[in-house]
Amino acid sequence: MKEYIYIICPVRNITKEQEKEIAHYVMEMELEGHTVHFPQRDVDQNDPTGTTICSLHAQAMTAATRVDVFWDRTSSGSHFDLGMAYILRKRIKIVKLYQPDSEGKSYVKVMQSMGG
To answer: Count of domains in the chain?
Structure first.
């Protein structure tokens, strides 16, 4: 089944290695016929307050059938996007964790509970 995939990933402080890895994944998904919302590609990041960015991402997240995550817990935007996915009850696929999960409760465990 072809899906509309929203990518949660670092944007502002993304490393070159992360950017290359995520862009490759996006390309693979698109070659499989999926539609992919890739934040740094699909929304102009030049926004003095971030309000327009958040609004456009919310529209894309609402339309998405699945959310694929490259989780970097240092990315504040990823935390915001994960909150949107949670409230919208989106199905989540964790593609990569850039840091190991911690013991006890965590966002990683929340994402795992939202898998499908």
So the answer is: 1
